[in-house]
Amino acid sequence: MPAMRVVVLVSGGGTNLQSLLDAGRSGALGPAAIVGVISSRPGVRALDRAVAAGVSARVLDHRAFADRAAFDAALKSEVQSLGADLVVLAGFMRVLTEGFLFGFEDRVINIHPSLLPAFPGVRAPAQALQHGVKISGCTVHFVDAGVDTGAIIAQAAVPVLDGDTEETLQARILVEEHRLLPAVVASLAAGGFRREGRRVHRVP
Ligand code: GRF
User: Fold this and answer.
1) How confident is the model at residue 175, as a pLDDT?
2) Residue 79: its pLDDT value, please?
3) Quick count: other Cβ atoms within 10 Å of Cβ 163?
4) How many domains does the chain have?
5) Angle CA 157–104–93, to nearest 5
6) What's the pTM?
7) Nearest CA to ligand 1 atom 14
8) Burial of 204 (0-12, 13-18, 19+ CB in 10 A)
9) Rounded mean pLDDT of 173-195?
10) In the chain, what percentage of residues exceed pLDDT 70?
């Protein structure tokens, strides 16, 4: 039994999921293991990645539920049935309700392609370009019921270059995401972070 059972929630391509699966295979996640993947959409590439890695993959199509509360209740019971110690949102395009988060305090994290609190929500690299910032990056944070508002665990910066498009900036940020997310999961599994209110400290 791994010391930390990780369930990854996805909705799309799953390149961040792939970085976690690769890190798990190479031993870079330490005592953490990816034990399940749940997608809010059918037919996405992330599901193929999970299957290729031999990880349990399920679809919970949000369109099949009457409202967010019903979807979150079903999602929570799937996550619990997988025995999750940590839930990682990796390109998961749903906002979780308090109902899901209750009982999972400090055990749900998300990766977002901006230096939060700047540019929460969708199309963060496009927002960064619209504002003309010179540095952007990615953030891993604990999840609360807001949109990308939870306590920040770790960030990585990238330059915004003249001539960048949404696609080129997104690609540069993704490279850092693929480093940062597995590093944070490994560190969480090793007890490497302690949250005090909105501030998350590294445990020496
Ligand atoms: C990433 O940019 C992530 O930060 C955001 O959605 C994107 C997901 O990409 N939340 P992928 O599905 O992991 O390739």
Assistant:
1) 98
2) 98
3) 5
4) 1
5) 55
6) 0.97
7) 15
8) exposed
9) 97
10) 99
Query: In this structure, what CATH number is given to the domain that contains residue 134?
Result: 3.40.50.170
> Where on the phi/psi map is residue 149: left (φ > 0), alpha (ψ -120 to 50), or beta?
alpha
State the closest ligand 1 atom to the C-alpha of 93, by its place in the atom list counted from 1: 10
| Alpha-carbon separation of residue 98 from 78, 95, 108 (angstroms) | 17, 10, 12
Strand order in the sheet with 199-202: 57-59, 32-39, 4-10, 86-89, 108-112, 135-142, 152-159, 199-202, 193-196
**H-run or E-run covering 112:** strand 108-112
Structure tokens at 155: 């960030």
| pLDDT band, very low/low/confident/very high, at 2 (cuts 50, 70, 90) | low
119 neighbors 128 (Cβ within 8 angstroms): yes
Specify the residue with its C-alpha closest to ligand 1, atom 2. 113
Ligand 1 center to 70 CA (angstroms): 25
Confidence of residue 1 (pLDDT cuts 50, 70, 90): low
Quick check: CB of 113 below 6 Å from ligand 1? yes
- Domain range holding 33? 4-202
